[in-house]
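Q: Got a minute? One more chain.
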Amino acid sequence: MEIPVLNKSGKQVGVMNVDEQALGGAVNHALLKQAFVRYHTNLRQGSARTKSRGMVEGSTRKIYKQKHTGNARMGPVRTPIRRGGGRAFAKTRTRENYRLDMPLKMRRKANRNALLAKLMDNEVRVIDSLAFGEPKTRAFQDLLAACKVDRSCLVALAPENANARLSARNVDGVTVVNSRQITCFDLLNHRFVVIAREDLQAWIDGPGSRTDKSAKGVKKKEAA
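A: Always. Here it is, folded:
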């Protein structure tokens, strides 16, 4: 697959060749959905709390006797059916109760497959260089306009590229991420992706390319 490489003026200055097989060969929609749901679920704070009848402050005394009052039978004031009482099913679960897990190889394949989907839809803007002499928001806005980026955009930058990060952080609809930590959730949550050529190549050839048995990392004996 040939990807056009643009300069800051939006003009094509070269071509970058990307192996489709290294990104999964074809878009696996089921894998992308599973990975997207996992990332989205793991963002849940799980901090919602309510009190059950045992947690509410109040007496356990029965309000009035069971019979011969002409009223419906009633228990203590903390019962869930009374105003100010506890909840029948209190929310007590924490963040860990909502978390989902996914094998490392599947996560890496999903990340690379999401990039393939973006490339096939022509929604990736590869720039020859994203270096800026000084932080300037207007310069980055001009770059996006020249590259015809008119919707939400994910900008992947190397950690050492401070000027570009400062230039892009205040632009509406733009999310800046580390180019070494691109995930399918970030890719699928934005219409366009802007990334430097060398950063894209480094991500494709980086640790995320290990989707076989070696993806589990260094063996304990070798690490010792």
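A: The two ends are 41 Å apart (CA to CA).
Q: Perfect, thanks.
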